[in-house]
Structure formats: structure tokens, C-alpha cells
Amino acid sequence: MGMPCEVNSILKLTQSQGYPEALAVGVRIKAEKAGYRILPIDVPILLVDGDWMAWADVTIETLTWAGGVTHLEGTIGRVYDAPVSCQA
Fold first, then answer.
1. Is the dihedral of CA 23, 20, 65, 85 positive or negative?
2. Which of 29, 31, 63, 76 is most solvent-facing, going by the fewest CB within 10 Å?
3. CATH classification of 6-83, choosing from 3.30.1540.10, 2.40.240.20, 3.10.20.90, 2.60.40.420?
4. DSSP character for 9?
């Protein structure tokens, strides 16, 4: 019996999942994603909105799995001057 999980190298969030209302360096985020996910910890990764636009880098510091949900906490480390599209 295996454990289903996804490996992600970016953090894509919607408002309901915890996308931050204000993007500024040092802002702490708390988010939830359905399912079990593996994400890099302690390194900056792209923070992407529901339209696949990256607006900032976030460093995830805490990642926990419980009840089929991935809970994470992190800090915004950089905000871009202009958004970057993450879709081809």
C-alpha cells in the first residue's frame, strides 16, 4: 500500500488556500493544499496565483501533513516589479 503524494517546485495558491492579501517582503503566509505534497523547505520558490502568474518568492519553513491536507507556513522573501507568467 502506497501513500499518494505530489512533488511541487512552485507554490500555487488561490485566495481560499491562503494566497496572501498583501505581497511584501517579510509577510508570513499560512496555506493549505488538498492532498499530500512535497515542497522544498528553506529555499525560495515561486509564489504563483490562480492565473499561473508569479508575483513573489516564498520560503517555506514548516510543512505538515494531516487528514489528507498539506499545511505550510513561510515568509515572502522577494516581490517582483512585474509578474512572471508560469505557463507556456
1. negative
2. 63
3. 2.40.240.20
4. S
As given in the structure block, the three cell numbers for residue 70 are 498539506
Q: Which amino acid type is present at position 69? A: V
What are the pLDDT digits (tens) for 25-52?
999 999 999 999 999 999 999 999 999 9
Q: Residue ranges of the domains in the chain?
A: 6-83
Global confidence as pTM:
0.89
Rg of the Cα trace of the chain?
13
Give me the amino acid identity at 33: K
Cell of residue 49, nine digits: 496565483
Grid cell in block for residue 43? 529555499
